[in-house]
C-alpha cells in the first residue's frame, strides 16, 4: 500500500489502558497490510520498539493542554497543518488529540476520521458528586452536535444506542448523518492461544471455583460493591480474584474494609504480566464486573476469547455482546450469579457463544480488514456520503 496513515491517540503502547491498546492493534494491523503508518501520541519514558514511526508530544492525557503545555499544543497543531497523510485517525473525544485538531481541521490535508471510544458528557455516577459532574458537562453536551459535522468520517464501536456512553451515535442518527461506520474493538490476540503458565500453581492457590475481575482499582469500576455482594452471598468453594494494574488508595481502602477475607476467599493482585493475566482468565469459572461505566470493555472481549462466560452490570454496549449475562442491581446480580455457579452447562454455552463471536467479530485481523476497506473507500472518492455497517463476517457494507 502506498497510502500514508496517521493514528493519533493520547496513549499508546506500552501503555495498557483500553484506548492505547485499541490504537496499537489498529496500527499493527494496518502495518501488516502494508500501509505506511505514523503514530502520534504523548511522550513515554518506556522504550517503544515498533516497526513504524512514532511522533511524541509531552502532553498530559487530558481534554486540553495545561497552562505550561500550551506551546506544545501549538506545535502539535502545526505538525498537523504541515502533514501530508492520506487518512488521519483521531482516537477519542474529549482529549487533546481531537480537541486541538477541531479548530484547524479545514487546514489539514487528507481524510479526517474520529474514532469514538464513547462519550462521558451524559455520564451520571451515583451520588451528589455524580450529579455535579453531569451538570458541569452540560455546556459541552449542548455544543456537541457541532463536532459531528466537521470530521470527514466517524467510527463507532457499537450500534447499541446507549444514552450515557454512546450518545454520539444517537446524535449522529438524530442528525441523519451517514458518514460513519460501526467497527468494534477486539480481544487481545494472545488470548486465543493456550496459556503458558498455570495460575493456581504459580500463586499457590487452592483450587476452587474462581470469580475473576480485571480492571484498574477505582470507585467507578465497582470493586467495593462486587466484594460486598460476594461476601453476602458467600458461595461455597468459590474465591474472588481481583487484578488491577497497581495498588492505590482505593485498593488500600478495600483491604482495610474487607481485610479478614483477604487471602482466604478474596485475593487482590497488581502488576501481573500479560501471561499471568491470561492464565487467570483460563483458570476462572466466571468473569464478574460491577463497573458503573464502560463502552465496549476489552476485559470482556478477552474473556470471550478464552471462552470464559461473564456476568457484568448493564452498561454501555455490554448487553450486545455474546458470551454472558447483564444485571441491573444487586438483587439481580445475586440471582444470576447463583444460577451460573450451579449450572456448568449454562456457563459452557455462554462461553462457546462468546468465543465464536470473538473469532468471527472481535478479532483484530478482521478489524484491520474493516479499516482497510474504510481507507480504500475514503481515498477512492472525494465525496463519500454512504452509510456503512459490519455484516456477520465483520466486513464493511454500504446502504
CATH structural fold name of the largest domain:
Rossmann fold
Strand content: 15-25%
Query: What level of helicity do the residues show?
Result: 25-40%
Reported for the largest beta sheet, the result is: 7 strands, parallel
The helix/strand class is alpha/beta
Number of discrete helical segments: 14
- Overall shape: globular
Mean pLDDT, to the nearest integer, reads 92
- In total, the number of domains comes to 2
The total strand number stands at 15
**Radius of gyration, rounded?**
21 Å
For the record, the CATH architecture of the largest domain stands as 3-Layer(aba) Sandwich
Order of helices and strands: EHEEHEHEHHEHEHEHEHEHEHEEHHHEE
The rounded distance between the terminal residues' Cα atoms is: 27 Å
The CATH class of the largest domain turns out to be Alpha Beta
Low-pLDDT parts are: 383-399
Outline:
InterPro entries: Glyco_trans_1 (IPR001296), Glyco_trans_4-like_N (IPR028098), Glycosyltransferase_grp1 (IPR050194). With 399 residues, this protein is an alpha/beta fold. It is built from 14 helices and 15 strands.
